[in-house]
Write a structure and sequence with these properties.
45% helix; D-Maltodextrin-Binding Protein, domain 2; 5-stranded mixed β-sheet; 299 residues; alpha/beta; 3-stranded antiparallel β-sheet
Length: 299
């Protein structure tokens, strides 16, 4: 049986539908906050949601765990969500397809300009923490081998098994570029694993190196060690909210609520929030609410 190619008319119709989705109106009666499918994004999504609830009269709907970067990008363009947590380095490389370089201010400005010009989206002020990728090994191995940097680790990598998330394997600032920058070679092809399983797989000796995040709460809890990116391969990954400009035009009070969070979450504080949820298994709403009260971020 042969498969017919779609006609030009069908392709035009599909393109028009995508255009309409990207222009879908924001919600007049509520704000929808999304997140990616890992703990930190879930926590920051809840942080955004609670701050908006506290400082506006809008109803906030939560649509968390929307898989990865590309799914969240499509969801916000389609109007299914109004905002979600993102990282400037991820937006720069994965969405804008730009080289992974520049300081924090340059990357933020470049991403904000690109999102406004191309997508009708904008960025909130940076939240304060930089969650760069962290190549993690067991603390016992770092101490035994006397290594602290990725450059030093390349001598031992041929004897190691690596584990990475699917997105890290595919994105332009991920595995292939990192391997080329450092000359990394492993004992076997890296295992593609769920992000939530990587740290414990490393602890349990099922892998020897994992691509985690610098603010991962399980790094100190499981005695892991984040190798220094001494060749500065990774760009800055400042946490921000990506927001539909239409939403801010309709609800300018949302911009004011997000501005209250500017610079309020440090790397260390984000790591503690992650540990409270991942390590202590506390309820995320309780953890976020306590943090906001302690920081006097609730009116």
């Amino acid at each position: 049986m042969t498969t017919r190619s779609p006609s030009v008319g069908v392709l035009v119709l599909a393109a028009f539908c995508l255009f309409l989705l990207s222009c879908a109106p924001s919600h007049s009666d509520r704000v929808v906050v999304g997140s990616k499918n890992f703990t930190e994004s879930f926590i920051v999504g809840e942080l955004l949601a609670q701050e908006i609830e506290a400082r506006t009269h809008l109803r906030v709907e939560r649509r968390f765990y929307l898989a990865g970067t590309y799914i969240c990008q499509q969801a916000i363009l389609a109007g299914r969500i109004d905002l979600y947590p993102e990282y400037t380095g991820t937006a720069l490389t994965a969405i804008l397809k730009q080289p992974a370089n520049g300081n924090q201010q340059d990357v933020y400005r470049h991403v904000k300009d690109g999102y406004e010009r191309r997508f009708g989206l904008t960025l909130s002020p940076a939240l304060g923490f930089n969650d760069t990728f962290a190549m993690e090994i067991r603390g016992e191995d770092a101490r035994r081998l006397g290594i602290r940097t990725l450059s030093q680790a390349t001598a031992f990598a041929p004897h190691w098994r690596a584990g990475f998330g699917y997105e890290f394997m595919e994105r332009p600032d991920g595995y292939r570029g990192l391997a080329a920058a450092y000359g990394l070679r492993f004992a076997e092809a890296p295992r593609i694993m769920d992000l939530g399983l990587l740290a414990r797989a490393l602890r349990d000796h099922r892998i020897d190196l994992a691509a985690g995040n610098a603010t991962d709460g399980l790094i100190p809890a499981l005695d892991l060690f984040a190798l220094e990116d001494d060749r500065h391969y990774f760009p800055p990954y400042e946490a921000v909210a990506v927001v539909r400009q239409q939403t801010l035009q309709l609800h300018p009070e949302v911009a004011q609520a997000l501005a209250e969070l500017a610079g309020k979450v440090s790397d260390r504080e984000m790591q503690q929030l992650n540990y409270a949820v991942d390590g202590q298994h506390r309820d995320v709403k309780e953890v976020v609410g306590q943090f906001l009260r302690d920081k006097k971020l609730l009116p």
